[in-house]
Amino acid sequence: MTGTSTDRILRAIVVGYLVLFFVYMFAPLIYMMAVAFNDSRIPTLNPWRGFTLNWFVVMWEDTRMWQSIWKSVVIAFWVIVLSIPLGLAGALFMVRLQVPGKPLIYSILISPVLMPGIIIGLSTLVFWDASFDIGGRWQLSVLGQSSFISAYCMLLFMARLQRFDPTLEEAAADLGATPLQVFWTIMVPYMRPAILSAVAISFFQSFENYNTTTFTIGNDNTFTMYIVGKVRKGVTPDTNALAFVLVVATVIGGVAYELVRRREMKRAARRARRAQQADEALVATPTPVAQPAD
């Protein structure tokens, strides 16, 4: 009886903690999203002056916002183009090759993840400006962001590669496949779920980055920098409308990513099942007995 009472008390404490946690996390978001529909220039629900969509129209007509979004998308695209190959190369190097000093090399490769973004942005600007006379511009932001985002990609790829069966590559090579064919027909399909995850992480890490971008972007303006500059002047209802759109877009993007990830997992499971069935059929096939020559 005492044990049952203790379990109930612990369960009540856990449930209460979870309720407080989710209220703390989501109450400000819900309030901010609700303010976007209040027909008042003061971003508050008290007083409520009626339902309106006017602030979404004001947000839509903000040309500076659209320019900053486009700039962030361009930077994120090129960050993905650089980070995915660099991360995959680093993962293959760490998992496949046996070289002296691998722990030291691993520490160097992941060090950008542990380094403050301000340091990465400032060092990127100083290096490229002093060495090649390249001042702040969006291309420099791509280089600065890729230096640590590629490390995230490498860690994802390493986790996937550690479960890879190298005998698949050996079998393909025995059948006459070239190294490039082995890579594209075996390695890339196997790594596809990790690649999709790395693309998503690279995009969001780049799109929301502020510290590194501040030092490298120059006179350009990304979406995050635009939001920070706008909030410094005071929160307005159209800012809340923008936040509402971002929350909805994030939820839709997360759901879409999860659906794609699950579909890729089902495809991988089907491929593995077909390969197993083929192996079982091959084993079950009787070997023809050679007839003696007359």
What name is given to the CATH topology of the domain at 63-266? MetI-like fold
What is the percent of helical residues?
over 70%
Q: Count the E strands.
A: 0
Sequence stretches where pLDDT stays below 50 over 5 or more residues: none
- CATH architecture verdict of the domain at 63-266: Orthogonal Bundle
CATH class of the domain at 63-266: Mainly Alpha
Q: Strand-and-helix sequence, N→C?
A: HHHHHHHHHHH
Explain what you see.
- This protein is mainly alpha-helical and 294 residues long.
- It has a domain at 63-266: MetI-like (MetI-like fold, Orthogonal Bundle), CATH 1.10.3720.
- 78% of the residues lie in helices and 0% in strands.
- It has 11 helices and no strands.
- It has helices at 2-35, 54-60, 63-96, 102-114, 117-132, 138-161, 167-174, 179-207, 211-216, 223-232, 237-284.
- Helix 1 (2-35) packs across helix 11 (237-284), helix 4 crosses helix 6 (138-161) and helix 7 (167-174) crosses helix 8.
- The chain is globular.
- The termini are far apart.
- The model has no long low-confidence stretch (mean pLDDT 83).
Give the topology.
Elements: H1 2-35, H2 54-60, H3 63-96, H4 102-114, H5 117-132, H6 138-161, H7 167-174, H8 179-207, H9 211-216, H10 223-232, H11 237-284
